[in-house]
């Protein structure tokens, strides 16, 4: 693109006045830099609308003046206002619904009422206080962003301290008080006196970078969630939960199922979660304690942070994103962290398994496609989507119960043996919770760190025909590549290994070992206690 195109792009991004000022600054750059920028294609530049949205978010995030920036750097490891505004900006860019229609609101009220009636016959817990809401995507962001910030703050604090340490000790600060690209693209700007301290500057950059990634992930996740308990934990302030009609409509359309039936299923899940959390006051504090225990133990590899910073083309929030991603800079988990991860994974599985159990019993007489919806939910919870994986890279852990099927089977057996009152009575105290059945070392998969999980994620098959189809396809690939090179043969071997893993995952819930899962041994009942397989499980993931 030529310089005239760059001139026009600056005006479209910043308006006629600020755009001309930016063009004047651009014209004063060395010829080599201008030529380098002109050599880039127009598709390599952000769209003017994206630039304007980011400027608005930075303004709303309190980054207008150097004094504002210094104040934000001192307010914590994450700029909450910036994260929220970036997330809301993504929903506006996607043309998300700005309000909930009366029809959608009435549908949510009706199906939630029906869901609670159905649950009354299969659940010992009373309905949660209040009424479930019908939310827009923006409403979900407004209601849940504070919870995500709370979970991510300990990790963000550790990363921020690592950034400051690397800059202070290994880069010896900055020369001449200038940083190329700081909030102004390629234009060098002088740093104000109150931001020349490397410690303050890196706190600001870490604070801003974390907020930008958190906001982008929340904006993407807002397009996927169906209710307030989709992650298995209480994120919204309303204890009765919420449904997001726009997303449920898209989901029903993708499954080619009736909207009312899909909405009723989502209402059953939401109401069941709400009843459980309302009746078990220790449950959410337990999750918060386990997440905090893991996050406080996060250690940062300073050499890896230094490498990420040296690879950054500019010192700005976007360029240092790699240095705050625990997949890149996190150190192997400590034994205490592994214990917290194991306990968190089991507790998530017990919660989701209980919900799966009661939803199945409540909906089987009312929802014709309950089995299909149940299976889709199990797969989605076990794997997670791209937006959830972004959250995991920020928090450093997976919030997916890998053993949901076993937990659901366990609660079904307890229901058959002890009845509804006996089953739900296990939630009266953490020590009364049942233990998930022990698994063989080969297929043990609990909760894993983001650094380990991104290279090991496998979609577990849930029915035999899925595994058999994969096996058949792999066999065909091997036949068609009989004369291929050694690397190709290696790929086939990997595929076979993946298929074997899928068979193993599918067979686990029916393993005869699960017969003793209802044991009330105090030493193994609580998901936060030691168990003999934990070390094997964690070393398996490492």
Compute the gyration radius: what is it? 26 Å
Give the rounded overall mean pLDDT.
Answer: 74
Strand order of the largest sheet: 1-4
Order of helices and strands: HHHHHHEHEEHEHHHHHHHHHHHHH
Intertermini distance = 47 Å
Range of helix content? 55-70%
Keywords: Hydrolase
GO molecular function: hydrolase activity
InterPro entries: Zinicin_2, Zinicin_2_N
Biased composition (Polar residues): 445-460
Output the keywords.
two-stranded antiparallel sheet; 542 residues; mainly alpha; disordered C terminus
Q: What's the gist of this structure?
A:
By secondary structure, the chain is mainly alpha-helical. The protein has helices at 3-27, 31-38, 48-60, 66-73, 80-93, 102-120, 137-170, 198-221, 245-255, 259-279, 283-296, 302-311, 326-329, 335-363, 370-383, 386-395, 404-425, 450-453, 464-480, 486-507, 534-541, and strands spanning 133-134, 178-180, 188-190, 242-243.
Commentary on this structure:
The structure is a single chain. The protein has 542 residues and is mainly alpha-helical. It has a domain at 1-45. The protein is built from 21 helices and 4 strands. It has helices spanning 3-27, 31-38, 48-60, 66-73, 80-93, 102-120, 137-170, 198-221, 245-255, 259-279, 283-296, 302-311, 326-329, 335-363, 370-383, 386-395, 404-425, 450-453, 464-480, 486-507, 534-541; strands spanning 133-134, 178-180, 188-190, 242-243. A two-stranded parallel ribbon has the order 1-4. Strands 2-3 form a two-stranded antiparallel ribbon. Helix 4 packs across helix 8 (198-221) and helix 9 crosses helix 10 (259-279). It is globular.
């Amino acid at each position: 693109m030529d310089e005239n195109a760059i001139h026009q792009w600056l005006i479209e991004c910043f308006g006629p006045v600020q755009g001309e000022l930016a063009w004047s600054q651009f014209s004063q750059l060395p010829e080599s830099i201008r030529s380098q920028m002109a050599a880039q294609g127009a598709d390599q530049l952000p769209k003017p609308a994206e630039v304007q949205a980011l400027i608005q978010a930075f303004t709303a995030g309190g980054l207008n003046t150097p004094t504002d920036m210094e104040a934000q750097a001192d307010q914590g490891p994450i700029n909450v206002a910036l994260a929220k505004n970036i997330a809301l900006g993504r929903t506006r860019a996607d043309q998300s619904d700005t309000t909930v229609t009366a029809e959608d609101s009435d549908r949510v009220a009706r199906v939630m009422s029906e869901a609670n009636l159905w649950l009354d016959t299969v659940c010992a817990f009373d309905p949660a206080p209040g009424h479930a809401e019908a939310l827009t995507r923006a409403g979900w962001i407004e209601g849940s962003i504070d919870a995500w910030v709370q979970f991510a703050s300990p990790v963000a604090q550790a990363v921020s301290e690592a950034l400051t340490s690397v800059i202070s000790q290994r880069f010896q600060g900055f020369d001449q008080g200038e940083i190329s690209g700081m909030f102004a693209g390629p234009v060098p700007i002088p740093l104000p006196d109150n931001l020349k301290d490397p410690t303050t500057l890196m706190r600001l950059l870490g604070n801003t970078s974390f907020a930008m990634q958190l906001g982008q992930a929340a904006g993407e996740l807002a397009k996927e969630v169906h209710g307030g308990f989709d992650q298995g934990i209480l994120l919204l302030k309303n204890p009765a939960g919420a449904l997001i009609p726009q997303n449920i409509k898209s989901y029903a359309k993708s499954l080619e199922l009736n909207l009312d039936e899909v909405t009723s299923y989502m209402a059953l899940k939401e109401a069941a979660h709400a009843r459980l959390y309302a009746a078990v006051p220790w449950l959410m504090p337990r999750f918060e304690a386990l997440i905090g225990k893991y996050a406080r133990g996060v250690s940062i590899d300073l050499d890896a942070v230094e490498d990420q910073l040296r690879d950054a083309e500019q010192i700005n929030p976007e360029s240092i994103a790699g240095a705050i991603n625990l997949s890149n800079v996190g150190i192997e988990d400590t034994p205490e962290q592994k214990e917290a991860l194991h306990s968190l994974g089991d507790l998530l599985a017990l919660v989701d398994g209980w919900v799966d159990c009661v939803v199945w019993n409540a909906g089987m007489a009312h929802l014709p496609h309950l089995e299909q919806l149940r299976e889709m939910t199990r797969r989605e919870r076990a794997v997670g989507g791209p937006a959830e994986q972004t959250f995991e890279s920020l928090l450093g852990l997976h919030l997916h119960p890998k053993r949901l099927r076993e937990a659901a089977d366990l609660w079904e057996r307890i229901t058959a043996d002890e009845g509804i009152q006996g089953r739900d009575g296990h939630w009266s105290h953490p020590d009364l919770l049942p233990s998930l059945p022990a698994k063989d070392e080969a297929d043990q998969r609990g909760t894993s760190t983001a650094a380990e999980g991104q290279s090991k994620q496998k979609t577990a098959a849930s029915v035999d025909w899925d595994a058999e189809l994969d096996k058949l396809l792999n066999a065909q690939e091997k036949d068609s590549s009989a004369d291929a090179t050694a690397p190709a043969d290696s790929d086939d071997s990997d595929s076979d290994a993946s298929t074997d893993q899928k068979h193993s995952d599918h067979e686990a819930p029916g393993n005869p070992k699960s017969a003793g899962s209802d044991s009330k041994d105090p030493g193994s009942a609580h998901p936060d206690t030691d168990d003999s397989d934990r070390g094997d499980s964690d070393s398996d993931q490492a």
